[in-house]
Design brief:
Layout: E1 3-12, H1 14-30, E2 46-54, H2 58-71, E3 76-86, E4 92-98, H3 102-115, H4 135-142, H5 144-148, E5 156-161, E6 172-185, E7 189-198
Antiparallel strand pairs: 1-2, 1-6, 3-4, 3-6, 4-5, 6-7
Helix pairs in contact: 2-3
């Protein structure tokens, strides 16, 4: 067993997953197809915490996530708009913004605290699922606590690279029923589910 890069995530319901994949397809036709969302191996998700773990710790992490799943009241979320961010390569990433409720913020902070004994941030390409790995992927994982943790937490569903044309109607309500530990792929995609905790 070795060390792998992981993401603790909420997975949206089937309808929202399909919607995110549909929007991703629109983006791919006019942009770069480096992120191709799917229901099998590149899952639309809301990230709660990223880091690197020893694979031997997966069972202990599962117990922590199952406890968090029992404690949280997060079930209903809303996508409230489209935003974009610029990565260190100067590329525009398209995101569906998710409303940051008190309950969602609390769950994020609980996850960060519960993962502290397990997470490390000295990430290497070998820890990423798949072959090609960009420097921006490693940078994001390495700096997650400073850039996206606690007061910097900004819940979203990553759609892909490029800018969507206007026309989406918001808000888009959706439910979440699972808290997952996923093996991260390039561009911080969720490529392989390691642990599922039902909410």
């Amino acid at each position: 067993m070795g060390r792998i890069a992981v993401d603790v995530v909420l997975l949206p319901d089937e309808a929202m997953t399909s919607r995110a994949i549909e929007i991703n397809r629109q983006l791919i036709t006019s942009g770069r197809p480096e992120i191709v969302l799917s229901e099998e191996d590149c899952l639309p998700h809301v990230s709660l915490a990223m880091g690197c773990i020893d694979e031997a710790d997966v069972k202990a992490i599962q117990e922590r996530l199952e406890d968090l799943a029992r404690r949280t009241t997060v079930r209903q979320l809303e996508a409230v708009g489209v935003s974009s961010s610029i990565n260190s390569r100067g590329e525009t990433t398209c995101l569906l913004e998710v409303e940051k409720t008190q309950e969602l913020q609390a769950l994020h902070e609980w996850v960060m605290e519960e993962m502290t004994p397990f997470f490390r941030y000295e990430v290497t390409e070998a820890m990423i699922y798949g072959d090609a790995v960009t420097g921006t992927t490693l940078d994001w994982i390495r700096t997650y606590p400073e850039k996206a943790g606690y007061e910097h937490f900004s819940p979203h569903i990553t759609i892909g690279y490029g800018r969507l044309p206007p026309g989406l109607s918001f808000p888009i309500p959706f439910t979440v029923t699972r808290l997952e530990l996923c093996h991260l792929g390039n561009h911080c995609t969720c490529r392989r589910i390691l642990v599922t905790a039902t909410l």
